[in-house]
Amino acid sequence: MKQLWKDFMNGIITENAVLKLMIGLCPVLAVSTTVMNGIGMGFATTFVLLGSNLTIALIRNIVPKEIRIPIFIIVIATFVIITDLSMAAYFPGLHKALGIFIPLIVVNCIIMGRAEAFASRNTLIRSIADGLGMGIGFILILILLSGARELLGKGTILGVSLPFDGFEPALIMILPPGAFFAIGIMIAIFNNLFKLKSNGGHKHGSS
Predict the structure, then answer these.
(1) pLDDT at residue 126, as a whole number
(2) Which pLDDT belongs to residue 196?
(3) What residue ranges are annotated as transmembrane (predicted)?
(4) Are the C-beta atoms of 134 and 11 separated by less than 8 Å?
(5) Could you tell me if 120 and 72 are in contact, meaning their C-beta atoms sit under 8 angstroms apart?
């Protein structure tokens, strides 16, 4: 149980895909103009990540090593197609807003990275914990980033205007430069925060 909790928290903090490993940044920066887009992309990616981790963990012992990458891509693409068609059917507005970035989940470094580095080498239960942790970590960062950009760039949250008189949105925050600016600040805060906690723990232990 302790190992499963460690695998789960690994994706949220220790190896957070966006703020720590800095992979999968393209969709994060592109779709995080509104909270709804961020939530949609986060859950879509998590579904694919969890489904591919689960499937690859199940078939890992029967997949020849020589062709494992093509097979992993087929598995991932299957879950992406399910996600794409489901969103088009039930959330057409969100599907249209996310556009090409839904099909591009197939080549997201986070998905393939976890398939190769974790799911193909560990048990089903551990792969599920890893997929959930990585997915939730990804969702949280998308919500924080898109929330900050929508709030500062449009003066709204989930499309609801703020009840503050005289607030002037900064248009740059919903443009590409604003995305880089915001993610840079988040990475700096995240790394410094956990660096301080780590250093505090070492000092406490040495004393």
Answers:
(1) 95
(2) 63
(3) 12-32, 38-59, 71-91, 97-115, 127-149, 169-194
(4) yes
(5) yes
Our count of domains for the chain comes to 1
C-alpha distances out from residue 96 to 55, 153, 191, Å: 28, 21, 34
- Mean pLDDT (whole number) for 45-57: 96
Report how far residue 41's alpha carbon sits from residue 68's, in angstroms, rounded to the nearest whole number. 27
Beta bridge partners of 156: 161
Residue-wise pLDDT for 143-189, tens only, equals 999 999 999 998 888 888 877 777 788 889 999 899 999 999 999 99
Which pTM does this prediction carry? 0.88
For residue 199, give both structure tokens. Answer: 């250093």
Q: Is 207 a member of any domain?
A: no
User: Tokens for 207?
Assistant: 């004393």
DSSP characters over 80-128: HHHHHHHHHHH-HHHHHHHGGGTGGGGG-HHHHHHIIIIITTS-HHHHH
Per the structure, the complete domain to which residue 178 belongs is given by: 2-202
**Burial class (CB within 10 angstroms; exposed 0-12, middle 13-18, buried 19+) of 7:** buried
Is residue 67 situated within a structural domain?
yes
Q: What is the pLDDT of residue 207?
A: 43
